[in-house]
Design brief:
Length: 231
């Protein structure tokens, strides 16, 4: 049985991202991150974050020849809730924001782009989230434990690098399958990834700085024992 180029391209476009999404969610469920929500202060932060991230995923801008600029919030979610709970949160956000956009567009159930759930989750949640968690783990091992270093490293540097790298990977994937829009170049998409990276760094850094000072119990990756007492 021979598979022509168009069939192979369609196969590559359909199965990897849903498979990765299911694998990530299976790992998340195995971690049972919802147990963290037994902490009452975190419940308020999580519900507020859920609403905020849903609104963030529902807003996007298209500039130039089709470059999409949309903040993801994944670095912020990972910094506040840790990787497993952040991925669970963003999976809910993915579904709710898609349903919200469909409602605003007046679409019925049959018209909703359900196939977009997996790509959105991988490129807006899993990829930047994993990169953020990895960078933060390296910084915890290599850098001194100091609140200022935490805010700069976890709040600004990690989100910036994670968003740019995730955007670059998404660009390579999209152009491997074919340009998503006529006239859009790899350079345009990478420029958009850099813009998004700085936006993610500003958003995450600003909120993390505020929360570390006024609501440190909302930031699970920040502990007084590590960053204030020096133990």
């Amino acid at each position: 049985m021979q598979i022509d180029d168009s069939s192979l391209q369609a196969l590559l476009a359909t199965w990897p991202l849903p498979t990765l999404s299911v694998a990530m969610l299976a790992w998340v469920v195995s971690q049972r991150p919802w147990r963290l929500l037994r902490q009452e202060p975190l419940q308020h932060a999580w519900l507020g974050g859920l609403v905020f991230l849903t609104l963030l995923w529902s807003a996007r801008a298209t500039v130039g020849t089709g470059v999409v600029v949309q903040l993801m919030g994944a670095p912020l979610a990972v910094t506040m809730f840790g990787l497993p709970l952040a991925m669970l949160t963003l999976a809910i956000v993915d579904l709710v924001s898609l349903l919200g956009l469909a409602y605003l567009a007046g679409q019925g159930w049959a018209d909703i782009a359900w196939v977009s759930l997996a790509p959105r989750f991988i490129w807006m949640a899993a990829a930047p989230g994993l990169l953020t968690a990895g960078l933060q783990a390296v910084m915890r091992r290599r850098l001194p434990r100091h609140p200022f270093i935490f805010i700069l490293g976890h709040g600004y540097f990690a989100p910036l690098v994670a968003a740019i790298v995730a955007g670059g990977l998404r660009t390579l994937w999209q152009f491997h399958l074919g340009p998503p829009h006529a006239g859009l170049t790899i350079g345009d998409s990478l420029t958009g990834a850099v813009v998004i990276g700085f936006g993610e760094a500003f958003l995450t850094g600003m909120l993390v700085a505020i929360f570390v000072v006024y609501r440190p119990q909302w930031v699970l990756t920040f502990t007084d024992e590590d960053y204030l007492t020096g133990k």
